[in-house]
Design brief:
It is built from 12 helices and 12 strands. It is of the alpha/beta class and 339 residues long. The protein folds into 2 domains: 50 residues, no CATH class; 272 residues, TIM Barrel (Alpha-Beta Barrel), CATH 3.20.20. The two termini are 24 Å apart. It binds iron/sulfur cluster. The site of iron/sulfur cluster has 13 residues, from helix 4.
């Protein structure tokens, strides 16, 4: 919601100062989706607001719900016609997690990612980012559910749009707006050391996830061009500095790709990287089943993934096989293509 515009309208209508707080509470915390439903406002003011400004900065083009109802994907049309996607998943019954986008497309070009294939179109504004959360809060209100966690793992690299992403984090955690706890939010990066540094300084309580996927520079650079600029050595230093400042756990995301990063040598490379940081207890590996896109990659088998996990565990690495949700509606990790 465009707060500046709202303030301007309220001033022009000679409204008292507290009016904006009433509206913020209704929209951000109570999930009311239309000004006309805010009963504390006069009928005239409701009409003016309805006419002058929409609550959301996009139109909802399509909502797809998986058969089990645990994954929902929304295709959202921005005012300039660009399309983005936002996803809502329930990893456990009643626990809802929103996966949001921060850019239209992405410049990082990771070979296994559908968003990377469409390239970079533009950054989202903080309003466009937080409106995705507003939309999911409104959606969940219709089923009497609440949003539990937020992950910046949709379209785009958060640290390539830090100005707007950091503003969106301030808005999400602002008690007068969304009032969401920092520890319920995670930001995921493909590996930009300066961004990791900024997170440690500005948002030490927000969770950090690293799209890691490859424990050798050779393989990582082949699939993730960002590694040619910021290699594993620079990520190691960035993580060591992050731990020194925050003492918070970091999640290493590891998508299991058949014949590419799933053998014992790959596991050894991952173990070596984690050990080289010297903070075994502060790194947690999430093994993720690869979701099919039209790329050349295929997911590792379930058996191979379990073997990989067991090998890491034997080496005292904290590891979880993450349940994959949303594949059927093309809303799982790496599948968002804005179409
Ligand atoms: S995986 Fe993330 S950083 Fe890489 S291309 Fe996809 S959206 Fe961008």
């Amino acid at each position: 919601m465009n707060l500046q515009k709202l303030e301007t309208i309220l001033q022009a209508q000679n409204q008292p100062k507290f009016r904006i707080q009433q509206i913020k509470k209704a929209i951000y915390q109570e999930g009311i989706s239309s000004f006309s439903d805010i009963s504390t406002l006069s009928k005239d003011l409701r009409e003016v607001l309805e006419k002058e400004m929409p609550v959301l900065s996009f139109e909802v083009q399509q909502v797809l719900i998986s058969k089990d109802g645990q994954s929902i994907k929304a295709l959202l049309k921005l005012r300039d016609g660009n399309l983005i996607e936002a996803v809502l998943i329930a990893p456990k019954p009643g626990i809802w997690s929103a996966c949001i986008s921060c850019q239209v497309g992405c410049a990082m070009g990771c070979k296994f990612c559908a968003t990377g294939k469409i390239g970079f179109k533009r950054n989202l504004t903080a309003e466009e980012i937080t409106d995705q959360i507003l939309f999911w809060i409104q959606h969940l209100k219709t089923t009497n559910h609440k949003l539990s966690t937020i992950v910046y793992m949709g379209m785009g690299e958060p640290f390539s749009n830090w100005e707007q992403v950091s503003q969106s984090l301030r808005d999400l955690t602002d008690p007068n707006l969304f009032g969401i706890g920092s520890r319920s939010i995670s930001v995921s990066t493909s590996g930009i050391p300066e961004g990791i540094e900024k997170m440690a300084q500005e948002f030490p309580q927000v969770n950090l996830a690293l799209s890691f996927h490859f424990g050798s520079n050779e393989k990582r650079s082949a699939a993730m061009p960002i590694n040619r600029k910021n290699n594993l050595e620079s990520l190691k230093v960035a993580l060591q500095n992050y731990f020194a400042k925050t003492k918070r756990k970091v999640f290493l995301e590891y998508v299991m790709l058949a014949g590419v990063n799933d053998d014992s040598k790959d596991a050894d490379n991952l173990i070596d990287f984690i050990r080289s940081i010297g903070k075994l207890q502060l790194l947690h590996v999430n093994l993720i089943r690869y979701n099919s896109t039209d790329s050349q990659f295929k997911s590792s088998s379930k058996e191979r993934t379990i073997l990989f996990r067991d090998y890491l565990e034997k080496n005292r690495i904290e590891v979880t096989i993450r349940k994959s949700l949303g594949e059927e509606i093309q809303g799982a990790c790496g599948q968002l293509a804005g179409k």
